[in-house]
């Protein structure tokens, strides 16, 4: 199986530096570039965003995001991207229960079933100097990344789109 490079990057961030915001960014850009938008990429984005919310203490956001994975997830899609469907669904259910009970954030490792995929992701992780299955940093720069990032490019793109729409 050939896996997209952006998926490998996602897995490296997910299990290495635990930057779930970057997981979202990398995979969303890939997903939007596809001629047909495949739901499995949204599921993986939602898992990362759900964990991002849990780590930040946004329990409502975590529950909502993790629950939403079940509306798009199929066994065939999950297995096609080298993950174990039954273990993944069980892990998500357990995480939702933990969040509902107010448990503090703890790391989750995706159940990779394809050894080749795991090797590729581990190599990507090592190329960045990250440890595979490293524990999450609880530093503000990572936990609150969405609020601390430079958004000038996003603001400029929105302004250009608004100006183009007003000219019509």
Automatic annotation (TrEMBL):
UniProt-listed InterPro entries: DUF309, TTHA0068_sf
Taxonomic superkingdom: Bacteria
Q: Which Pfam families match?
A: DUF309
Q: Which SUPFAM superfamilies match?
A: TTHA0068-like (SSF140663)
Q: What is the recorded name of this protein?
A: DUF309 domain-containing protein
Query: Which species is this record about?
Result: Ammoniphilus oxalaticus
């Amino acid at each position: 199986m050939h896996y997209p490079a952006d998926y490998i990057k996602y897995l490296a961030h997910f299990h290495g530096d635990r930057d779930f915001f970057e997981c979202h960014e990398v995979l969303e850009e890939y997903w939007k570039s596809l001629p047909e938008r495949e739901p499995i990429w949204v599921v993986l984005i939602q898992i990362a965003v759900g964990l991002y919310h849990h780590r930040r203490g946004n329990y409502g956001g975590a529950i909502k995001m993790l629950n939403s994975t079940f509306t798009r997830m199929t066994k065939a899609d999950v297995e096609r991207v080298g993950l174990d469907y039954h273990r993944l669904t069980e892990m998500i259910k357990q995480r939702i229960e933990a969040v509902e009970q107010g448990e503090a954030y703890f790391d989750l490792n995706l159940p990779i079933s394809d050894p080749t995929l795991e090797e590729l992701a581990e190599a990507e992780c090592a190329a960045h100097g990250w440890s595979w299955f490293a524990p999450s940093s609880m530093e503000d720069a990572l936990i609150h990344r969405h609020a601390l990032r430079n958004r000038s490019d996003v603001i400029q793109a929105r302004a250009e789109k608004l100006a183009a729409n007003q000219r019509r």
